[in-house]
């Protein structure tokens, strides 16, 4: 495994946006998954939209991403559609509707679209850049079709999967990434660090 540190990897700062009622987020997550409220046809390809955002001049903070998504990607309307789907699903579930409201659904989708997207995509972006620099190869990020296949980017002609480093501890990456067919990279934003788990995937080719 190869560790790349802050000289090649930019920090990513996530700010807390909302405080949710206790135990609400797991239930909102289930309703979101069951309603398929964050599918590409509803909220758009976050990968492609965020890549377009990074191409723009200016600051790249979470508020800048929020403004870009709303102004250039019809974000307010998309979030509204997504929140409505979650709300309809919650109405089919035995939950306390004094707690779970349409407004809470919107807050949850906004948190996903703004905070979580910026957090994950920024870490992914800088990890790919740092790793491509290490291998001295060109890179590109995946399109929606490639993303659906579990490919986040390409370094040279090699497919790449990028995840938060905690995913390794939770075994998520190991369960979903094939180190024989995909270059696996994880990142730790607070430490300004990313890790290339199977560098021989490229070095030995």
Summarize the helices and strands and which ones pair or pack.
Elements: E1 2-4, H1 24-35, H2 40-43, H3 46-55, H4 62-72, H5 75-90, H6 102-135, E2 139-141, H7 144-148, E3 153-155, E4 158-164, H8 166-169, H9 172-176, E5 183-188, E6 193-196, H10 200-203
Parallel strand pairs: 4-5
Antiparallel strand pairs: 1-6, 2-3, 3-4, 5-6
Write a structural description:
The chain has 205 residues and is an alpha+beta fold. The protein has two domains: 2-10 and 137-203, no CATH class; 24-122, no CATH class. Helices cover 51% and strands 13% of the residues. The chain is built from ten helices and six strands. It has helices at 24-35, 40-43, 46-55, 62-72, 75-90, 102-135, 144-148, 166-169, 172-176, 200-203; strands at 2-4, 139-141, 153-155, 158-164, 183-188, 193-196. A six-stranded mixed sheet has the order 1-6-5-4-3-2. A hairpin with a 4-residue loop joins strand 5 (183-188) and strand 6 (193-196). Helix 3 (46-55) crosses helix 6. The longest helix has 34 residues, at 102-135. Mean pLDDT is 85; it is low at 170-175.
């Amino acid at each position: 495994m190869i560790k790349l540190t802050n000289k090649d990897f930019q920090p990513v700062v996530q700010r807390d946006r909302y405080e949710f009622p206790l135990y609400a987020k797991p239930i909102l997550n289930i309703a979101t998954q069951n309603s398929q409220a964050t599918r590409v046809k509803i909220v758009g390809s976050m990968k492609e939209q965020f890549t377009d955002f990074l191409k723009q001049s200016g600051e790249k903070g979470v508020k800048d991403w929020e403004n870009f998504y709303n102004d250039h990607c019809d974000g307010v309307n998309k979030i509204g559609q997504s929140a409505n789907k979650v709300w309809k699903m919650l109405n089919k579930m035995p939950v306390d509707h004094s707690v779970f409201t349409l407004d809470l659904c919107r807050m949850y989708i906004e948190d996903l679209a703004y905070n979580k997207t910026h957090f994950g995509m920024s870490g992914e972006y800088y990890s790919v850049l740092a790793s491509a620099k290490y291998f001295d190869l060109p890179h590109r990020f995946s399109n929606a079709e490639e993303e659906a296949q579990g490919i986040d980017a390409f370094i040279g002609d090699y497919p790449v999967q990028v995840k938060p480093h905690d995913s390794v501890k939770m075994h998520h990456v190991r369960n979903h990434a094939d180190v024989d067919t995909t270059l696996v990279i994880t990142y730790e934003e607070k430490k300004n660090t990313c890790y290339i788990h199977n560098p021989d995937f490229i070095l030995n080719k």
